[in-house]
Specification:
alpha/beta, 2 domains, about 45% helix, 7-stranded mixed β-sheet, Aspartate Aminotransferase, domain 2, single chain, Aspartate Aminotransferase, domain 1
Length: about 350
């Protein structure tokens, strides 16, 4: 069997996403909430799940959850789709729009799954480097839109890994210029307090992605897509019928019931982000960039792979970034608990000073 002749060239030409399991005592690489659910809330959640009929399929399309989440967002259930994390919803979008010759436009650096899923689905992926302030390079993107008519554009808001929100005016200009869908991925909106939700009914080509992974449910894989009902009617033809399992549907409903407790943890993360940013500013050779997400992106005068390895030897896991078009090297660190952040700063000081 010749796999080279059987598998698509787009798949053969890339590497799998490196979601590796690395043993460490302090995990600051995946933008997770560092705080577990309070024991009393865990008991309430597990009690809700206890009598669930595991021999039955989940509600297809999660209608009750869609209705509740839509009400929170100011729309009815026909504007909402649920997914097995936002990754699955990205895949549904890419698969639905991957006509022969269709193009996907993304800024870079950004969330790597846009590119990976786009390629896997057969889209022609175009990349546009961010400007020096890590904002959208609007003239270049508008030129690409005019010349290539991309079917799909992904904009992470706030952006990962840089942590900033792109200019609202530039996103609106892209929405107005694009003949295709513009997806504003609001995975970190709980930390930024910013959203394009008020624009949803103004722009027919606007799609918003949300997730509960960053607010404490990373293990449960719960995502939401918001868009025009006519679009969702077509996307639902691609979505698998039982894509969100019963336990996750129940957990999402529990989140809506107990949202203040979850948001209290978000406030703690934001406070720790401020302290972590200030601590990074005080280390020679480290230049942190302002963040409105639950992580901080910073440049490092030392070789970041060396710093990464030294931190890992101390049981601290972060995410290094090296881009061939940028001379600087970077590290992204998730905002952890106060104790985790302090341990990270002390170790980083030592290794950068070496």
């Amino acid at each position: 069997m010749d796999l080279g002749k059987l598998i698509k060239r787009e798949v053969l030409a890339q590497k799998a996403y490196a979601a590796e399991i690395t043993t460490c005592r302090i995990k600051l690489d995946a933008n997770e909430n560092p705080y577990p659910l309070q024991p009393s809330l865990q008991e309430k959640l597990f009690a809700r799940m206890k009598d669930m009929a595991l021999n039955r399929y989940p509600d297809p399309g999660a209608p009750a959850l869609r209705k509740r989440y839509g009400a929170v967002c100011g729309v009815d259930e026909n504007w909402v789709m649920t997914g097995n994390g936002s990754d699955e919803l990205i895949q549904v979008l890419c698969a639905s729009l991957a006509r022969p010759g269709a193009k996907l436009l993304i800024p870079t650096p950004t969330f790597v799954m846009y590119r990976i899923i786009g390629l896997n689905c057969g889209l022609d992926v175009m990349e546009c480097p961010l400007d020096d302030a890590f904002d959208l390079d609007l003239p270049v993107m508008l030129d690409k839109i005019a010349a290539e008519s991309p079917a799909l554009i992904f904009l992470s808001y706030p952006n990962s890994p840089t942590g900033n929100c792109f200019s609202e005016e530039r996103i609106r200009a892209i929405l107005e210029a694009s003949p295709g869908l513009v997806v504003v991925d609001e995975a970190y909106c709980n930390f930024s307090g910013k959203t394009f939700l008020p624009q949803l009914k103004r722009f027919q080509n606007l799609v918003i992605l949300r997730t509960l992974s960053k607010v404490g449910y990373a293990a449960l894989r719960i995502g939401f897509l918001l868009g025009a009902p006519a679009l969702l009617q077509e996307l639902n033809k691609v979505r698998l019928p039982y894509n969100l399992n019963s336990l996750s549907q129940a957990a999402a409903g529990f989140f809506l019931d107990e949202e203040p407790a979850f948001l209290e943890q978000i406030d703690r993360v934001v406070e720790e982000r401020k302290k972590l940013f200030a601590a990074l500013q005080n280390i020679d050779g480290i230049d942190p960039y302002p963040s409105v997400a639950n992580f901080i992106f910073f440049s490092c005068a030392r070789n970041v792979n060396h710093v990464y390895e030294q931190l890992l030897r101390k049981g601290i896991l972060v995410k290094p970034f090296v881009f061939p078009w940028i001379s600087q090297q970077f590290i992204r660190v998730t905002v952890g608990s106060r104790e985790e952040n302090e341990a990270f700063i002390e170790a980083l000081k030592r290794f950068v000073a070496e």
